[in-house]
Each structure stands twice: as structure tokens, then as C-alpha cells.
Amino acid sequence: MRIGELAARTGLTRDTIRFYEKVGLVAGRRTANGYRDFPPEAVAWLDYVRTAQALGFSLAEIALNGEGLRGAPDTAEALSALFEEKIRVVDARMAELAVLRAELVARVGTGCPLLAAGRPG
């Protein structure tokens, strides 16, 4: 299918699809007249990409994990492992943010938060 149809079926813009193609997330072939032609499975794959992004996965993670998932004998188990790892990353980031939040709360009302931390002004 041509890029316009793929865009319509996925809700992505043509520019986004071109970018994904440029970074290797989706592959299309060029027809004799120079148009991009994408396979029908590109629709499901781009839906997966959008969902994975919404779940906090970077495009690099999606590209890396996508290749592994395509060859995985048990996709559900492989996805669960990816989700568990992402949960660990999110939990660690939440802990970092809690420390940052506490630091900011401690500086509220001190006049100059940077001086209150003992840093030279």
C-alpha cells in the first residue's frame, strides 16, 4: 500500500511514517515510479509502535525489541518480560523524582533555594 493509505489506516502523518522509515522502524520498497509501497503488516506494526511509545518505550527500544519479538516463540512471555523491565525503570525513576521533590519542598520559602542548599550564590 502507498504511504497515503498507510497514513490513513494508522492515523499517523506521512512525515511520521517517512521518519520511521528513515530510522528503520518500518520498511517500504520503492515502486518503478518512485512511490513508497508498504506491506499490509505495516499497519499492525505501526499500531504496535504507537502503543509501545504510549507505554514509555523509546523508538530505539521499540526497534531493538521489535526484532526480538518477531522471532520469539512466545510473544506474550517476551512482552511480559519487557514490561517487567520497564516497570523496574519506571520505579527507579519515580524514586529519583521523589528525592528531587523532597529537595524542592525543603527549599520552598527559604528565599533563595540555591543558597539554602549551601551552594555559593
Automatic annotation (TrEMBL):
Organism superkingdom: Bacteria
Keyword DNA repair: no
Keywords carried by this UniProt record: DNA-binding, Transcription, Transcription regulation
Residue stretches making up the HTH merR-type domain: 1-68
Xref: PROSITE patterns: HTH_MERR_1, HTH_MERR_2
Protein name: MerR family transcriptional regulator
Source organism: Kitasatospora purpeofusca
Lineage: Bacteria, Bacillati, Actinomycetota, Actinomycetes, Kitasatosporales
